[in-house]
Amino acid sequence: MDSANSSSPSTRPVYLPEGTHKRIKILVAGPIGVGKTTSIQTLSEIPTLHTDEVMTDAAATTDDLSLVGLRNKTTTTVAIDFGRRTLPGNKIVLYLYGTPGQRRFLPLWEGIAFGALGALVLADTRRLDESFEVMDLIEERGLPYAVAVNTFPDSPDYPIELLRSKLDLDSATPLVTCDARDMNSSLEALIALTAHSISSAVAGAETS
Questions:
Q1: Is there a domain that residue 9 lies in?
Q2: Hey, CA dihedral for 112, 200, 95, 178, is it positive or negative?
Q3: Position with higher pLDDT, 69 vs 142
Q4: Buried (b) or exposed (e) across 129-164, using 16+ Cβ within 10 A?
Q5: How many domains does the chain have?
Q6: Residue 76, in any domain of the structure
């Protein structure tokens, strides 16, 4: 999925706005080919960092590239994607780290996840079952998360409550739909996660 963000990296601001900011580390996670790189490209206000590599025949032994949505995929993220987004009001700055969603990347994932306040999990209705592995990793680490169902042109359209049931989500976990290429819907998903992560952190501090 290509990014539809109209801002080119060369025209995006590089420096943080003046004033006092709360800086928050956020993970953007999900199975292969779900749109993590595109989402960070869309959201980032700075030129993004990517660690994509060309996929080889060896990948077929670990990732099933015959699945819907993966048949034309030629590259994959092997370490991280990185971007930055200042939320409206210039008080909260998010550092966005895209991570591989497969458990075999666990040592790398744990390093990237250290210090994160929460995670935005991207899901694809054409292969929802692939989201469980990354959600398990996030829950094992105790991170609050939100799920954003990325809409592809041929994605089945399910009611939001049916999606919540299929993903076996807690009632407090935010669940939204978005288009990873669209700034507004991607930003809404990010804001939903940020609000949930901050409230979870406050609740945890009050009970400790």
A1: no
A2: positive
A3: 142
A4: ebbeebbebbeeeebbbbbbbbbbeebeeeeeeebb
A5: 1
A6: yes
**Residues found in the chain:** 208
Residues 192 and 176: beta-carbon distance below 8 Å:
yes
Host domain of residue 63: 20-207
Give the 3-state secondary structure of residue 208. Answer: coil
Structure letter (DSSP) for residue 23: E
Q: Report pLDDT digits (tens) over 12-67.
A: 557 787 788 889 999 999 998 899 999 999 999 999 887 655 544 544 445 455 55
Rounded to whole angstroms, the Cα distance separating 117 from 193 reads 10
Q: Three-class SS of residue 177?
A: strand
Question: What are the tens digits of pLDDT across the range 80-119?
Answer: 899 999 988 888 899 999 987 677 777 888 888 999 999 9
Q: What is the mean pLDDT of the chain?
A: 82
Q: Are strands 145-150 and 22-29 parallel, antiparallel or unpaired?
A: unpaired
Distance CA 202, CA 197 (A): 9
